[in-house]
Amino acid sequence: MSSSRPAKRQRTTGYHDPVPLADDFSTVHAREGKVKKVGKAIRMAPMERVPQPTEDSWEKLTAWTAPDSTDFALDPNGDLYEAALEADVMEDLPTVQKKNKSMISRRPHVRWKDVHRQTYLDEIIRWSGRADFRAAKDCPDCMARSVEEPGSPAYRCDECILPDLTCSSCCVRRHRLHPFHRIRRWTGSHFVKCSLKSLGLKVQLNHGSMFCENPEPCHASLLVLHTNGIHEVDIRYCGCARAIPQHLQLLRRRLYPASQITAKTCATFELLEHHHTLALTTKGSTYDFYRALEKSTNTSGIRVPKSRYRALFRMSVQWRHLQMLKRAGRANDASSVEGTQPGDLALLCPSCPRPGINLLDGWQDAPEGLKFLYMAFICMDANFRLKNQLVSNYSQDPGLGIGWAYMVPRLPYESYVLSRAGDEDISTCVGLQALAKANTKFSVGLRYTGLSLTVCGRSEMILPLGVGNLHKGERYANMDYVFGSSLQFFMVGLILISYDICCQWFINLHKQMEEHWPEEIKLRPNTKLIPAIPKLHEPMHQPTGHQVYSLNYIKGCGHSDCECPERVWGPHNPLANSTKTQGPGTRHDVFDDHFSFWNWLKYIGLGLTLLRRYKAAVAQRNLHKEAHRGLTESLDPELVKSWETISVEWEQDEFPKKKKNPYHLDSAYLSELEVKKQLAEEEERRLADGGISLHATSAASFVQMGLDLEDTQRRLQRLSKAMASKSSGAIGQERSLTEERNTLRMDQSACASSAQALPKSEKPEDADIWLPSRLPSANRERICRPGVAGMEERLRDAQCADSINKVRSVLKLKARMIHFKNKNVRGQRDGTQSRAVIDRVHMKARNAADRYRAARQAKLALAGPGTWEEAFRILEDADIRGYQDPNRLRPRVGRRGVLEDDQVEGQSQHSLTAAPEDPEFLFNEIRTRRDGTGETRRTLSWIWLTTPSSGADDDKDDILRVEWAKSRARATRASEEVMLLKEEMRRVLAFLEWRSNWWKTREEPREGLNKELAEGVRAFAVAQSNLQDDLAAHFRGLWKAPLTEEPDDSSPDAADADEDIDDEYDRDEDEEVEDYDEPMSDDEVLEDPSTR
């Protein structure tokens, strides 16, 4: 019977497989198709192919097809933008009101303490007796079996869900298959511990029926380590005709023997898995784990079992190694374990470009503007906490798999480092503490002083053969070999290498490659290297000419910050406590295991990681493109064209760049940096003339450190205020407030005198910095050495000039944005629709104003009133306005309804008589109707009348040129980030598909296996192949609608995922950290490693 229901429309999905292209990629053919209905079927009508020789066609056919939107994160209309643009710079933004929480939600302990504490305590102590089974007179199991004389119920199991009491024989019967449960015996007044072995339980091996004709007893001192303690177990080996070696009998019952001859210690597989997972997630040592196991067995210290710590440590190291072999498919490979090659046990990064795995055919022929999509990002760094003392040697502890995973092979590595032992590696650009300590007492008694590491700059996954030991500091030879070793796993021709001293290391790198590098690590032909410095490290270098290393201006790097090694070191630094005294081989194996777990967390977290990055990247792209469009259209087109030419020529210039730098700004006045340089030169001349240095830190350096601490304190105060208010315009930080405060405490401790400890404070940003300006003038000369106050005064002058110039620059930029908005008629798209753009501009002006006020107050304390006040006046909120803005002054209005009438009157009089020298009290000038508000009555703020000031003409305003170039760079990097994430999504899915097929090819077991082992080999391969397919399906579902769907916050993935935050307002732009959008750390989901 035919149905009367109409035929359903065919569904379409958001995911499409990439189209295989067989033509020349310089001309991509496409056709617009149409469908026609033939009966109930739908057919495609043939259409003529049309050539499209454009880069857009290439992008459409090769990029990931995740939904995109140019309006995402923008305001629905221009109302919010106009309101923010027309508001005063110093006007606070409205705060978001939080929803009131209940007492239980806000203070759960208070409710529990008042209502439930006694009840919980009573229920817990209730189990010290027989509880619900106090009235039992006969054994319930005996009663169930209708035994004529039931036993006395005196034994209770702490592990079973039913805590009833049974007789001894029934207790043994119940635990025939649970020999590691803990038993207690009721004495008539209390419970005492006893073992199942004492009750007569025997465990027979090698027989499913638990019966053997010829059982053989185990060692009398055999102990079994389980998750709930250390147990005495009576194990019987099989001695009949079907007997196999005793250690195999134990393994087939999931008992891992510490010895293969006569086992006196065994550990259950559950214990080894539990310990393995705890060690990976908590970085705890095996010693601490064994102590916890020992205390779980007996907390009284009486009759403690003989220590089996060494046996447990040995078993855990072997277990780690076996798990790595298992996950890498060595049991499924025809060459077995002996055929393992260097790097085979490492987990590869799915998002890195890998020809033949996750790249389309013909990727080499991509247009020039899209070649960055196939660039590999490598980040390199060293760590000096993961030391190793001179304990044991490689002969006694050779390691189980050195060079098979992440640590480089030892012999060729140490041979090369020894051959370059005479190199002088101290950097002349940055006096890194690590390099300076290379040949000092800090290396005495150590086999290795730390580790060097290479990491993928996009996924933060550690690269195969990318970790090496440091023999004596961060020498170039060590870093060269580790870098070259990790390069062998990349087949692409464009590689960005990020290193914190890349400006020095990269200079002679190609020469070292040609003359000294061994053949096994040499660079592949036609490979281009692009040097870079991580974003947080780059401002610490000399600013001159360092834009070439800045990730803000390198073409094709998107929002990569390349600080990935720092994120790797943080969670692994706790390993130093346990690995410092380990043997050299065991230390290698432990590091390989932990690095493998790190990579696995990144591997399974790529779905949510790329999803969050993509949403943030699309928002940032739209915001920055709109901001740049608004700025560009307000300028002379010919001038913009010339700046565009300069920027493009500089980007296309090969390293080292010789073209004009569009981001370089020549200063027209004596800046703070130049004053610091002058003070350093004066100190050098003083010492050269015979002067004496009383301290390791010079007076000028000490004052500079104090000023830097003040800047950090002001930044933290703004951050704390923003996080407390949760204002809509506040832009987050890539590091938490706690981390910032800890860093400040360390800096304050380093600057503090050894004779005077800093007072303990919960908020280090509120601590006093005792510079000469903070001391009373009467005691200043007595406390400070001669000249120190003058040094601070010179620096304060430079701070005032820098800050005023910064305010002027920001206001000029805002004036351009207002001019562009006024040019557009109603009905057109209103400039920048995002309020966040103008909020960022306002925040920069506020930061500069705070810095100026603090510097001026210190200048006044040092020099007193004088003619300098004509140039550096009191800066009020109303003074921070553009030279074209009317002076819109309004009296300050306090919060209504909180003061009495007499208090209001007193406050009004106080506002007119307050001392203008107080920088914290800012009052507005009262204007009358006679003053007027029209064009002829504009009042120019004094900040535009003081010197120095840049020219107002566009073609002479280098500040505006640099601002435009940086705006262009921000928009370009944001667009690149979206394209990179789309390509990475596509590559991850392709890699998972390849990995699934790779496991399928290993379903057939190697030759010579029995049926049981062959089945296990096949089952593991199928499970791993299905896991890759499940991950691919999960990722594809997440990425199907990334701009609309939010992940479930209740999942572990969402709970541990870091938020993508912009670090704009907590760092001054003068530090050349432009729009530091840190890639989010991946979601560290705690998965069972055995399922991998």
Summary tags:
alpha+beta; disordered C terminus
Q: How is the quaternary structure best described? A: single chain
Shape: globular
Overall structural class, as computed from helix and strand content, comes to: alpha+beta
Count of DSSP helices?
30
| Strand order, largest beta sheet | 19-18-15-20-21
Low-confidence stretches: 11-25, 57-64, 426-438, 727-734, 753-757, 823-833, 886-892, 910-938, 948-952, 1045-1092
Overall mean pLDDT stands at 78
End-to-end Cα distance, whole Å, is 51 Å
Q: Hey, roughly how much beta strand do the residues contain?
A: 5-15%
Radius of gyration over alpha carbons? 36 Å
Counted beta strands = 21
Largest sheet: 5 strands, mixed
Molecular structure report:
- With 1092 residues, this protein is of the alpha+beta class.
- Helix content is 40%, strand content 9%.
- It starts with 27 loop residues before the first strand and ends in a 36-residue tail after the last helix.
Break the fold down into its secondary structure elements and pairings.
Blueprint (H helix, E strand, L loop, with lengths): L27 E3 L3 E5 L2 E5 L4 E3 L2 H8 L16 H8 L16 H4 L1 H19 L13 H5 L10 E3 L10 H7 L8 E4 L4 E4 L7 E3 L10 E3 L5 E4 L2 E4 L1 E5 L7 H6 L3 E3 L7 E4 H14 L3 H12 L11 H19 L48 E8 L4 E2 L20 H10 L13 H4 L9 E3 L1 E7 L5 E9 L5 H12 L6 E6 L2 H4 L3 H7 L12 E5 L31 H9 L3 H4 L4 H21 L1 H28 L3 H16 L19 H17 L10 H27 L11 H15 L25 H7 L4 H36 L11 H29 L37 H13 L44 H43 L10 H29 L12 H5 L36
Parallel strand pairs: 8-12, 10-14, 15-20, 20-21
Antiparallel strand pairs: 1-4, 2-3, 5-6, 6-7, 9-12, 10-11, 13-14, 15-18, 16-17, 18-19
Helix pairs in contact: 2-26, 8-10, 10-18, 19-28, 19-29, 21-25, 22-23, 22-25, 25-26, 28-29
